[in-house]
């Protein structure tokens, strides 16, 4: 849980550095400001939600599977939505 919180905190900092408020992101995502706050506190139930948040702050979420013998880039998570 701490890991999720730390990663979410970094995303919140990224949002702030982009000059966006939680209300801005909520509008872009079609959710409430409270939901954005929850996401930024690590409450993310799916890759889809995370991908939508990342897109709303100007990024793109990519998925990579890592195995003992290498990695497999699964692509743009947003494209799968």
Features:
two-stranded antiparallel sheet, 4 helices, 434 Repressor (Amino-terminal Domain), XRE family transcriptional regulator, alpha+beta, elongated, 81 residues, Lambda_DNA-bd_dom_sf
3D structure, described in words:
The chain has helices spanning 2-17, 22-29, 33-40, 47-56; strands at residues 62-67, 70-76. The chain has 81 residues and is of the alpha+beta class. It has one domain (11-76): 434 Repressor (Amino-terminal Domain) (Orthogonal Bundle), CATH 1.10.260.40. A two-stranded antiparallel sheet has the order 1-2. The radius of gyration is 13 Å and the shape is elongated.
CATH-level-2 architecture: Orthogonal Bundle
The global form is elongated
- Number of contiguous helices: 4
What CATH calls the topology is 434 Repressor (Amino-terminal Domain)
**End-to-end separation:** 25 Å
**Domain count:** 1
Q: Write the H/E string, N to C.
A: HHHHEE
CATH-defined superfamily: lambda repressor-like DNA-binding domains
Strand order of the biggest β-sheet: 1-2
Mean pLDDT: 88
Helix fraction by DSSP (H/I, runs of at least 4): 40-55%
The percent range for strand residues is: 15-25%
Q: Unreliable stretches, pLDDT < 50, 5 or more residues?
A: none
Look at the structure and give the CATH class: Mainly Alpha
Structural class based on helices, strands and sheet pairing: alpha+beta
Largest sheet: 2 strands, antiparallel
